[in-house]
Inverse folding.
């Protein structure tokens, strides 16, 4: 069984909802799943004035716990076409993990929320992939076998680089059923691959 961390930042709840769906999918595939947030950096009063969702229940992660998982699935809203500073700041504290190669060979995957259809989903997803590749992590996307991303009968998120949603410029659009199904698909997919890789690592250790 793979142990998976779904690690997200969400200001208004869209990425949080995708994180829940990713976790559901990974659990369906038999993984042990932990959902955590990265710390908020915006002062509480500023966040309140901006209408941020302040009742998020997921516990806050510590950078030093990342080596406890077989896979880490990272979700963030887009900020000017790249990941939120809260998520980057969290990973900027993982230098000691990088120095000892603690995440090498683990599975990484990413999901994203933007306001608009062409507002930087792919650049944000690939920025997360790049960061995790620096840690030596194996990147898993969302293959076109997850056929919901091919739909043309409705506006939808979803890309081969990872699950996505579109919040709208007023933030009123929550993830659609199709986007949630794609997020669950990604969670299952990561869990299945992580279980296979974790099994191989255990075999290698036993043989050594
Ligand atoms: C400073 C800032 C920059 C943003 N930049 C982008 C952007 O480049 N493209 C876009 O589509 N949305 C952009 N957004 C909108 C957010 O991506 C949107 O609020 C978010 O996806 C909602 O997800 P959440 O509810 O998980 O926070 C930006 C929002 C803020 C506050």
């Amino acid at each position: 069984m793979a142990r998976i961390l779904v690690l997200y930042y969400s200001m208004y709840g869209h990425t949080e909802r995708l994180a829940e769906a990713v976790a559901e999918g990974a659990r369906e595939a038999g993984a042990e799943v932990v959902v955590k947030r990265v710390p908020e950096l915006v002062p509480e009063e500023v966040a309140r004035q901006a209408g941020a969702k302040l009742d998020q229940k997921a516990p806050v992660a510590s950078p030093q716990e990342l080596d406890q998982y077989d896979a880490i699935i990272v979700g963030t809203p887009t900020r000017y076409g790249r990941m939120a500073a809260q998520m980057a700041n969290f990973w900027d504290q993982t230098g000691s993990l990088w120095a000892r190669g603690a995440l090498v060979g683990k599975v990484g995957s990413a999901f994203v929320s933007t306001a608009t259809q062409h507002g930087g989903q792919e650049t944000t997803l690939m920025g997360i992939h790049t960061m995790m590749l620096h840690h030596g992590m194996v990147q898993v996307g969302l293959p076109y076998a997850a056929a919901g991303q091919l739909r043309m009968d409705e506006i939808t998120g979803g890309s081969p680089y990872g699950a996505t949603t579109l919040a709208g410029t007023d933030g009123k659009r929550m993830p659609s059923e199709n986007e949630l199904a794609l997020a669950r698909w990604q969670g299952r997919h990561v869990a299945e691959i992580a279980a296979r890789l974790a099994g191989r690592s255990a075999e290698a250790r036993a043989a050594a």
